[in-house]
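Hey, resending since the last one bounced:
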Amino acid sequence: MTLTRSHTLKRQQCLILLVLVFQGIFASHHTASGDESVPTDPRLRWWKGNIHTHSFWSDGNDFPEMIAEWYRTRDYNFLAISDHNVLSEGERWMKLEEILNRGDQDTLRKYRSRFGGGWVETRGTPESPEFEVRLKPLNEFRALIEERGKFILVQGEEITDRILGKPVHLNATNLKEVIQPLGGSSIREGVINNLRAVEDQARRTGREVLVHLNHPSFYYTFTAEDLAAVLAERFFEVFNGHPSVNNRGDEHHPSIDRLWDIANTIRLDTLRSPPLYGVATDDSHEYHGRPGSRPGRGWIMVQSRYLTPEHLIRAIKAGNFYASSGVTLSKIHFDTERGTFHVHVSPVQDVDYTIQFIGTLNDYDRTSSPRLDREGKEISTTRVYSEDVGRVLQSTRGIQASYKLTGKEFYVRAVVTSNRPPEDPSFDGQLEQAWTQPVGWKRVLAPPPAD
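The structure tokens again:
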């Protein structure tokens, strides 16, 4: 049978319509299932995360799934649960009595309510003092929590040492195997020994691992000279959310901010080595509202294209991150050719911001008197506790500012402070802040030009 021209046209239109319908059905199914394709060229963006967290696996007071869910539902992108001298792996059971004593009377009920009775494993009878609940390891519960491109969990450990009666703690992020503390005959030797153990594992396993020094003023373990001397350590906590770690120092000890400046001045001027970078963390232990080290007080923002442990750690090692206790930055840029440092804030309505550029100039007073401890012993051996060290080079009120380096700076870093307190302050009078990493220091360490 011969088709007329109009019949042929109608048939073609029907075929096109049928194709479009099937495409729509496929697209609808594709979207509804959440099976979005992995972008081939994702944009550079900021990822929010905390890398110092404790759970029932050591001295925290909640189940790791509950903790991870807290962060996931509050727009964090990554979390490292870093319990003391242990990884969350293998089989571990915990008595209900201890769970309730450390948490609260509703801890198990809240756990069951969130994840269901089929997920929560127990053994024994509820009336028995031997009634126990199984703690799930990371490799088991991560599939329940993680979201591709939105939230990931990273294996971590707080390597918890004690040397000369002082706490020496380092956090290792993205470990494969647990590392037991190695100790040492001095504070510095202990840090070096534990750093070397992490570096050996990273090399042997082919993993990107980040190590940072925790709460340097906890029991005032570290002086600025200690922080400066261990050159293999490049990261430390400029802010820790625990109320007892002495972030502000006292009449005998500088604040952590000031320790940072003193240590970096020693590194760049005396030791001719790269500076320390600063992270902010929660060090969270308490998840039931009682006083203590609660979540949500300190975090890092990392600039990377991909949300993977490897890419995040590489970005941190390159200095592409900032620390925060509440202030969000939209742009940090150091123009190496022009020597200009730009900082932009993501503002909150009715909140004021002050952007301070801080650094040490190469003409600082090297002959000032040393600091003394309570017994009158000298704290500083290099006499760099001058007011010229870590001075405010420029202060600007507003949501953006730029600083033009003169060539006299060993380094410049920015601190942005808002005029409002954090949602859950660590101490009285605290204001929201953000800390950038030091810039301009590579010129200081560059070899002199050839004749």
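The chain has ten helices and 19 strands.

Sorry for the duplicate.
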